[in-house]
Design a protein that fits this description.
single chain; GMP Synthetase, Chain A, domain 3; three-stranded mixed beta sheet; 39% helix; alpha+beta; 3 helices
Length: 94
């Protein structure tokens, strides 16, 4: 398994442990124009607070883990968190 896929699997696991609506949660992975691995996490509207955390601490901790693992494997990593469902479906939240 390559590093990008392993990080995606790790991120999917972490999200599944935080959210109540696992059926709406998911992660996609792509490379941007500069070669950075971009992970797009989709989370249900009612789970956004759990994933972002107070003052963004949970999201920051997840990003730190991804970044550290990426650096260890020589890849640049970015995480974007999107809201799924509700009026703001597809809105970038963090």
């Amino acid at each position: 398994m390559d590093s990008g896929a392993a990080l995606q699997e790790f991120l999917e696991f972490v999200l599944s442990q935080l959210v109540a609506r696992r059926d709406l949660a998911g992660v996609s992975h792509e490379l941007d124009e500069r070669g950075a691995h971009v992970y797009r996490a989709r989370v249900a509207e009612e789970d956004i607070g759990k994933v972002i955390g107070k003052n963004g601490r949970t999201a920051s901790a997840i990003r730190s883990l991804l970044k550290a693992t990426g650096e260890k494997n020589g890849i640049n990593v970015r995480l974007k968190i999107y809201q799924v469902g509700g009026e703001d479906d597809g809105k970038l939240v963090a």
